[in-house]
Amino acid sequence: MSPLPRTIAIDGPAAAGKTSVGRALAERLGYLLLDTGMMYRAATLAALKAGVDLADEDAMVNLMNSISIDVIESRSDSGAISCSILVNGEDVSDELYTSLVDANVSVVAAHAGVRKILVEMQRRIGKRGRVVMIGRDIGTVVMPDADLKFYLDASPEVRARRRYKERHGADPYEAILADMRRRDTIDSTREVTPLRAAPDAIVIDTTDMSLDAVIEAAWNHVKKFERETNRREGYDHQVETPG
Ligand code: CDP
Questions:
Q1: Is the CB of 136 under 6 A from ligand 1?
Q2: Domains detected in the chain
Q3: Predicted confidence (pLDDT) per residue in 58-117, tens digit
Q4: Residue-wise over 87-116: b if at least 16 C-beta within 10 A, else e?
Q5: Relative to the CA of 134, which ligand 1 atom is closest?
Q6: Mean pLDDT, residues 169-193 taken together
Q7: Which of 44, 58, 144, 182 has the fewest CB neighbours in a 10 Å radius?
Q8: Segments in 30-172 forming alpha helices (H)
Q9: Ligand 1 atom 4: the closest Cα is on which residue?
Q10: For residues 217 and 206, what is the distance between their CA atoms, to the nearest angstrom?
Q11: What percent of the chain has pLDDT over 70?
């Protein structure tokens, strides 16, 4: 058995650095990187295209049951295995990060019926191990027994500035900040599995940290996990074979 963590959960609010940190860990470990936000975004995009009322939970669940959402894995040059999302066989990965999807996704993600369908898929992928999974409820609901859990946070202003840069100024900073605050509120106050750090999560406030520093901090925890497993197994071994 590998002494490395089999499953890593990364949760936190929008643009806290989850994807960049998750990608770096997945690359170093050669693991699958699953960003569950893509799945909620794909459901939102499908509803927008079909003209379904996003606030209507029954209509959303009916839609989810009438379409196929598939997660396709592909090994990237960097060593990580990344995911594309197909809706009815069509790759929609490049259509998921628009201000229209941003503005609507938290309403869709607040429906218990929608979450049930997507969490089920995520759990199946998590069970196989060798995965870094990113989201809002990974450490609390999807993989509560993940070997390592991170919760990344940062001030709303810093997160909005990061997103603004990421989108190359396509949307105004003020609009991004307002959207982020609105989503933070919906995500952390919704009835079903609101955004929370798991009690056993390692919380990293990234407000004043560079991305590299956050990656190294997270990587140090992976190495610490490895050392502790090795020490424990060495100890167990000694106990099993005294003398
Ligand atoms: O990239 P960003 O952090 O802005 O968002 P995302 O991770 O792509 O997630 C988009 C939205 O999906 C979030 O604002 C949540 O409303 C929802 N989401 C969720 O409820 N549970 C997850 N595990 C992942 C995303």
A1: yes
A2: 7-227 (3.40.50.300)
A3: 999 999 999 999 999 998 888 889 999 999 999 999 999 998 999 999 999 999 999 999
A4: beeeebeebbebeebbebbbbbbbbeebbe
A5: 23
A6: 90
A7: 58
A8: 37-50, 57-66, 99-109, 112-127, 156-166
A9: 14
A10: 10
A11: 96
